[in-house]
Amino acid sequence: MAAVPLFLPPLAISPKKHLLFYISIFFLIFLSNTPFSFSISEDEALIKFKESLKNTTALDSTWHKGSNPCDKNKKWTRVQCEGNTVEGLLLGEAGLSGEIDVDPLIALPGLRVLELANNSFSGTIPEFFFLGALKSIYIDGNQFSGEIPKDFFSKMGSLKKIWFSRNKFSGPIPESLANLKYLMELHLESNEFSGPIPSFSQASLTSIDLSNNKLQGEIPQSMSKFGSDPFKGNNELCGKQLGKDCNKEKENNTFQRAPMSKMKWIILGLVVSLLLITILFKAKRKEDHFDKLGKENLDEGLHVSSSNRKSTSIHSKGGDSVHESLRRGAGSQRGKATGDLVLVNEEKGTFGLPDLMKAAAEVLGNGVLGSAYKAKMVNGLSVVVKRLREMNKMNRDVFDTEIRKISKLRHRNILQLLAYHYRKEEKLLVSEYVPKGSLLYLLHGDRGISHAELNWPTRLRIIHGVASGMNFLHSEFASYVVPHGNLKSSNILLTEKYEPLLSDYAFYPLINNTQTVQCLFAYKSPEAIQNQQISPKSDVYCLGIIILEILTGKFPSQYLNNQKGGTDVVQWVQSAIADNRESELIDQEIANATDSIEQMVKLLHVGAACTVSDPEKRIDMKEASRRIEEISLI
Ligand SMILES: Nc1ncnc2c1ncn2[C@@H]1O[C@H](COP(=O)(O)OP(=O)(O)OP(=O)(O)O)[C@@H](O)[C@H]1O
């Protein structure tokens, strides 16, 4: 049979697995008209998979044999569905361990995303190559070790995103990775990979990180566009990016090992002394600073330094400063050692109200929902404290329940809540500070380096991430009136690597009913303006605005209350589509990527479909994210 060579399994597997592989292929070929679920249903497959894992308490409450994992009303937790088919397993940070049995997952024909990040899995890499249709695989932050066979990925041609970082993989980077046609993201950082880097030349590859391994030799020419960061922490790598001439490397090594001359010793001595003096001086100044903060802030309320570094004190409408409020909260409420701050995520470290009170603070802004402050704590952790003005007067238990639902979410494009504070008259949400700031700022505010870096691949990556986060929220909060409710570019934060993080989501149940119209951007959708109706489709409208904003580079008039100023991006795009002149709308700063104009125009059409005025005729989030996912770099 001519097709047989195509179905050769990767070499490095046991004879038993060879047999299993061929049995699977037999089923696929001969029963291709029969759903695979005839042999094993999706619920059975998932239960079997779960049985191979340990510490599955995160799944136990909903994963039950005999029920439909994709049931609209009782969907299994951490299962992502496309209609009635399992499309993704989002099992990150679930406390899981054990030996992953991949076999049952073969019975999930729609499986495209497998996320097992930040668990406690160990041992050699499981046989993921049986899952040939996977598009994304995330196993970062585990204890996997050993070599990955070089042809491991050769039958996984659909893979786009591979995150294997923060494990203990060793040996060479598998060559088959370099042949993945659609690869977009490759993260292998913080492992023990050694040997040379294969030549990655895929145009689709926009995000790569190989830092902190033991890689050796010259960085391939084809990878010069990635700069130096992805290669740092590999002592034996050389190349232009790292400022290490490969030819001179050997010489340099010899030179470095040669005994130092007397003069060099003297210079080194001077440098070290200078360094020591600087460190001592800084430490002294820091001590003074914290002493001052400790005394003044505890007694007089929060003193903040704004970006122009003027010291000021921030007061709410009632004249109360955040610090003052925190101080009273810490003193008056039932609470743990952390005061009355409830920590919901300890990955970034533990802290309490006293730490926040001692932190150096800076005002970030005063949005419609409340004010946001950056607080840099003594332990170095920077957080954002959001003081919510218009929160429902719900009792503590109801508030706790809502916030805990939010805090359980784990997705790479969702900003993680770290802690919260509840008092009748004060509600604070604490999340990690994201240094690059918001998309709004980078697109319209800053004309510096960060703005220049918003090239087409980066913008597409941001849209992909936003769509993925929104799709996730719509699946997790499917029963909510509006799962995000407040999607706009100031609520999209960007990490150092321009990975978008959605913030201020799922607030709809928390906000005073009388205030939602003023507070939530979903209320700017046409259906809300015309008849005060919002629905999950209002989120789709907001996503459409983001797409149009990113592609045109224009500030949408929709963000303004009176819509005076800015550009009516919706109207503009509709008339351009009618006149067949879509490409004219593309932001000049990305339009130079002429090879990609077709992709940009395609995306513009998705933006238009998301902003159709009648919600009945508007596509839903699943369809929007599917169409966005389809658009990749060429
Ligand atoms: N975790 C964070 N890291 C970095 N910057 C943040 C963070 N959270 C908020 N910001 C930035 O702080 C500023 C103020 O945020 P805030 O959420 O108060 O206002 P907003 O997003 O403009 O309006 P809204 O209250 O409607 O959400 C914004 O520019 C926002 O992008």
Automatic annotation (TrEMBL):
Alphabetized, the UniProt keywords read:
Glycoprotein, Leucine-rich repeat, Membrane, Phosphoprotein, Receptor, Repeat, Signal, Transmembrane, Transmembrane helix
User: What GO annotations for molecular function exist for this entry?
Assistant: ATP binding; protein serine/threonine kinase activity
Q: How does it sit in the membrane?
A: Single-pass membrane protein
Subcellular location(s) of the protein: Membrane
Return the annotated region ranges for Disordered: 303-334
Which InterPro entries does this chain map to? Kinase-like_dom_sf (IPR011009), Leu-rich_rpt (IPR001611), LRR_dom_sf (IPR032675), LRR_N_plant-typ (IPR013210), PRK1-6/SRF4-like (IPR046959), Prot_kinase_dom (IPR000719)
Q: From start to end residue, where is composition biased (Polar residues)?
A: 304-315
What's a GO cellular component annotated to this UniProt protein? Answer: plasma membrane
Residues forming the Protein kinase domain are 358-633
Keyword set includes Amino-acid biosynthesis: no
This protein's record includes keyword Transmembrane helix = yes
What sections of the protein cross the membrane? 20-40, 265-283
**Main location class:** membrane
Q: Basic and acidic residues bias located where?
A: 317-327
Top-level taxon in the UniProt lineage: Eukaryota
Q: What is this protein called?
A: Pollen receptor-like kinase 3
Source organism per UniProt: Nicotiana tabacum
